[in-house]
Amino acid sequence: MNKIALLFTIFFALFAISFACQDDFNPNTSTIGECTATQKSSWKPTDNAPVLTPADLDPSELAVHEERMAYILAIAKQQNKKFVASIYHQNGTFMCLGVNTGKPNIISHGEIVAINNCTALHGVTMFTNYTLYTTGEPCAMCASALLWADFKTIVWGTFNSDLLCKICMSNIPMDSSYIFGRYYGLRAVAPRVIGGVLRTEADAWFGTYCNRPTSIYYIKPQCACTNTTSPLKIDQTRYSSWFENGKTVSQFGGTITNTGSVTVTNPTFTSTPLRPNSIWGLTVNEATNLWSLQWYPVIQPGQTFSFGYIIDGEDTIAFQPTA
Ligand SMILES: *[C@@H]1O[C@H](CO)[C@@H](O)[C@H](O)[C@H]1NC(C)=O
Ligand SMILES: *[C@@H]1O[C@H](CO)[C@@H](O)[C@H](O)[C@H]1NC(C)=O
Ligand SMILES: *[C@@H]1O[C@H](CO)[C@@H](O)[C@H](O)[C@H]1NC(C)=O
Ligand SMILES: *[C@@H]1O[C@H](CO)[C@@H](O)[C@H](O)[C@H]1NC(C)=O
Ligand SMILES: *[C@@H]1O[C@H](CO)[C@@H](O)[C@H](O)[C@H]1NC(C)=O
Ligand SMILES: [Zn+2]
Predict the structure, then answer these.
(1) pLDDT, tens digit, for every residue of 100-130?
(2) Which ligand 3 atom minimizes the distance to the CA of 95?
(3) For the chain, what is the largest distance between any 2 Cα atoms, rounded to a whole number of angstroms?
(4) Atom 7 of ligand 3, nearest CA residue
């Protein structure tokens, strides 16, 4: 190849590259990602992670969590600190402890201290399959850290909602399940989240700051007070019963009325285990056993929502609104 040909080749290659660059990512026309040119992108709607409570656990599992929670509560009392965390290996080995002493700085929360401690003591840098215990529910910062660290199970005593609404202790007002539910940016699955283990004991240890407004931890509760009894009233009528394939079948119609003064959105209902042959207006989530409205799930004060079903026998499904 002579020099002219070589220069020509180089020139042509650069020319080709400059054209290739015009095909760089253009958000207006690119098909990268899931949205088309006539859509805009925003975060995927996400539910909070489910939080298990002691009532959901097998007694033998609960006993293990209670023993480990009792241990960090005992350390907390011994050192007169509120927030203590511990980390366990999946084989059940206790790995390390973290006490929030406020040192070296304000972000030295129990969970962060425990993570750093495990790294320092045992060289652990990723906590896949590990379990973390904490006397108080992780704050938004620590919940995020626990997701990054890939903990499999997270267990706490006192809920953030109790810290902020009853104990008057300042924190970021957020259920950690909000963060844990957003695991999909980092992880394939959400961590297993268990709240309220030895809750009474943990709450008692946090005590109250409500009467200590000069404490640096004090915050005036900024919590919404919602009625514990639902304003929704459910009426059901049996329209007819008939004989079909050797058994009695009944048709029921029902109404859900909002007797309160506030709009109810996305109400859910528990029920007896009876299941209809067919139902309209309501739909059940078999995993949680909760019913919800099948259509526009908003009931204004005074408004009524109708549903109906056909069921074997003559008994109603007893629906109860969850508060
Ligand atoms: C994308 O479209 C907007 C609005 O029409 C325009 O201002 C912008 O220059 C376009 N971007 C590119 C990279 O073409
Ligand atoms: C459990 O794991 C820890 C940490 O890796 C290890 O030191 C310990 O020997 C293991 N114990 C058992 C019984 O496997
Ligand atoms: C680290 O954990 C050990 C127990 O494994 C504990 O003795 C020690 O106090 C912890 N260090 C800090 C800084 O919390
Ligand atoms: C975590 O546990 C799962 C299930 O027991 C196992 O398949 C996986 O290898 C474990 N990962 C690590 C890093 O220990
Ligand atoms: C709670 O109950 C009171 C009294 O029955 C009622 O005035 C109020 O609107 C209810 N609040 C909500 C959020 O339903
Ligand atoms: Zn924290």
Answers:
(1) 999 999 999 999 999 999 999 999 999 999 9
(2) 5
(3) 98
(4) 97
